[in-house]
């Protein structure tokens, strides 16, 4: 059983790799499951066995990008570490992902693919939002520990992510600007933390 399973995994990985290449080169609408199958060296039936639709395949690629970033990040709240220190680690991991060329290329493809399909757009947004749930839980834990003011954790998490994306995502996606250099990244992160803590931290906490 293990050998066939390994072969199945290899085929799935080949399909995803082929899809990434095709989506980046040709965009979502032009890319076909037939072409993905040909590039991956598998049958079209094999592709559909793994991914029922092109939308599902693209969603899996986005999921893997987020998962690879999340795997390097510990979003567990710690009551004995400074909030700034924890936030800096969280935002640096987020910044690393936003600076990844693969992620930016595929984000452009995703946006282009959703312009003419609100339903598809909502599905992709929902999938990406699920990947940011960890930080929402972190905010909630800090609140329960008495270190943050009462605020909707999801709203606060979205605010903080948006502070980064305004500098390190949207200009690159919409205007073709290069990724931020290390010094600018650090400045954006520290400024975001300053604003976030000024708005939500309960300063009376020792």
CATH fold field value of the largest domain = Tetracycline Repressor, domain 2
Level-2 CATH architecture of the largest domain:
Orthogonal Bundle
The share of residues in helices is: over 70%
Largest pleated sheet? none
Can you tell me the CATH superfamily of the largest domain? Tetracycline Repressor, domain 2
DNA-binding region: 32-51
Organism: Pseudomonas mucidolens
Protein name: Transcriptional regulator, TetR family
Domain HTH tetR-type: 9-69
What do you see in this structure?
The chain is an all-alpha fold and 206 residues long. It folds into two domains: 52 residues, Homeodomain-like (Arc Repressor Mutant, subunit A, Orthogonal Bundle), CATH 1.10.10.60; 139 residues, Tetracycline Repressor, domain 2 (Orthogonal Bundle). Helix content is 74%, strand content 0%. It contains eleven helices and no strands. α5 crosses α11. The longest helix has 25 residues. The radius of gyration is 20 Å and the shape is elongated. Keywords: DNA-binding, Transcription, Transcription regulation. This is Transcriptional regulator, TetR family. GO terms for molecular function: DNA-binding transcription factor activity; transcription cis-regulatory region binding. It comes from Pseudomonas mucidolens. InterPro entries: DNA-bd_HTH_TetR-type_CS, Homeodomain-like_sf, HTH-type_TetR-like_transc_reg, HTH_TetR, Tet_transcr_reg_TetR-rel_C_sf, TetR_C_Proteobacteria.
Annotate the secondary structure layout.
Blueprint lengths: L1 H25 L6 H8 L3 H7 L3 H17 L12 H16 L2 H14 L3 H13 L2 H12 L8 H16 L1 H6 L6 H19 L6
Helix pairs in contact: 1-2, 1-4, 2-3, 4-5, 4-7, 5-9, 5-11, 6-7, 8-9, 9-11
